[in-house]
Design a protein that fits this description.
single chain; alpha+beta; Pdz3 Domain; 2-enoyl-CoA Hydratase, Chain A, domain 1; 3 domains; six-stranded mixed sheet; globular; protease; PDZ_6; serine protease; ClpP/crotonase-like_dom_sf
Length: 394
């Protein structure tokens, strides 16, 4: 009896092991078939290549192998709008999309040979807390002089991780220099700036279409209307675009009832976005340049298509695909074009860009001042051309 129980027990364990082995084999076969169906020969070849490099290469292995492989894969798509971000770049992109950045809270330009001239101090930043003011000059970073050509690399030296410190030498208006130690920290930025002008024009500058931009545009326009604005000028120059979820509410707020945007996904699924009847019934103009991109470009195109705005500036890029950002296990991310987009009437900007009601470029000097944020509207030829097309005296 005892011997039979032992044999039965041994048979039970052996059967379990056999069943587990068979299950594993079946699972591997299923996974292999699934991988073949999803990845195909090319995809599996990429995995094979990575495996061989990791296991067989005799030299020193670096993280750049994966970065270069992913970059090459995206480059092979032949799509100028898809991209790969390594871990550091992806983290920076997430901050940018949240309208947050890590720094000391200053805007600078390179007009002085002595160093970086402070053009603006961000409220709540370390620079404001340390008493830095517009017009002062940063002459050294961590004890190293940044005069002359060195000033062009200085912003990268001032940048750093949140919580770390940087020591700056600052030249005041009296020519005296002092040292200040600043802590780099996260700073919330406002994507919208605006002002009401004496001629009744409301000027709205939008830097991106990321988090909170739609609400800020609505607030700005509503405030300008309450002040008596009779026309609006939207400045989309150097605006690199952003989220569809910010663009659509913005267009809906400004435009009357009707289609305002269309998309076609990689599967062929089409979607049309509609505006309701409520709108802003004022003459409008949009300023653009070669860096007006993505959502900013379609914003101008849609307002123009609906007869709500004239468009002034320089030719734009003609972007027509939207990208979805996919996080990767290595900490980076792939931005892949997953949909094509069009104006409300189904017009694509690919290969054409915007139709300009007036093409006019800034001089090299004015462009430098505009980039630094110090070009007065009274001297801004593109803005003045917008007023002319709107029939408004400067």
């Amino acid at each position: 009896m005892e011997e039979k129980r032992k044999q039965k027990k041994r048979f039970g364990v052996g059967a379990l092991i056999g069943t587990a082995a068979a299950t594993l084999v079946v699972t591997l076969i299923v996974l292999g078939c699934a991988a073949w169906l999803v990845l195909g020969r090319d995809g599996l070849s990429l995995l094979q290549g990575i495996t061989l490099v990791k296991t067989q290469f005799v030299g020193e292995k670096t993280e750049e192998v994966t970065d270069q492989a992913l970059s090459g894969m995206i480059e092979g798509l032949g799509d100028r709008w898809s991209y790969y971000l390594d871990e550091e770049a992806y983290q920076a992109e997430q901050e940018r999309r949240a309208n947050v950045y890590v720094g000391i809270g200053v805007t600078v330009d390179y007009t002085s040979e002595a160093g970086l001239t402070i053009r603006a101090v961000v409220p709540g930043g370390s620079a404001e807390e340390a008493g830095l003011v517009e017009g002062e000059i940063i002459t050294a970073v961590d004890g190293e002089d940044i005069a002359g050509e060195a000033r062009y690399e200085a912003p990268d030296r001032i940048a750093g991780e949140e919580g770390s410190t940087v020591r700056l030498t600052v030249q005041g208006f009296d020519g005296n220099r002092r040292e200040v130690e600043l802590v780099r920290k996260s700073i919330q930025t406002d994507p919208v700036s605006y002002e009401y002008l004496e001629n009744g024009v409301g000027y709205v500058k939008l830097s991106n279409f990321f988090a909170g931009s739609a609400d800020r545009v609505k607030e700005a326009v509503t405030d300008l209307q309450s002040q008596g604005a009779t026309a609006l000028v939207f400045d989309m120059r150097d605006n690199g675009g952003g989220y569809l979820d910010e663009l659509i509410p913005m267009l809906d707020f400004l435009l009357p009832e009707g289609p305002i945007f269309q998309t076609r996904s990689h599967t062929g699924a089409e979607k049309i976005y509609e505006s309701d009847a409520a709108c802003v019934d004022l003459p409008m103009a949009v300023l653009v340049n070669e860096n007006t991109y993505s959502a900013a470009e379609i914003f101008a195109a849609e307002l123009q298509e609906e007869g709500a705005a004239v468009v002034i500036g320089t030719p734009t890029s003609g972007k027509g695909y939207s990208q979805q950002l996919f996080p990767l296990l290595n900490g980076g991310a792939l931005g892949i074009s997953t949909a094509e987009y069009f104006t409300g009437n189904g017009v694509s900007l690919i290969g054409t860009g915007l139709h300009l009601d007036r093409e006019i470029a800034l001089s090299e000097e004015d462009q430098a001042e505009f980039t630094a944020g110090v070009l007065p509207l009274a001297e801004d030829e593109q803005f003045q051309a917008a007023l002319e097309l709107l029939g408004i005296a400067a």
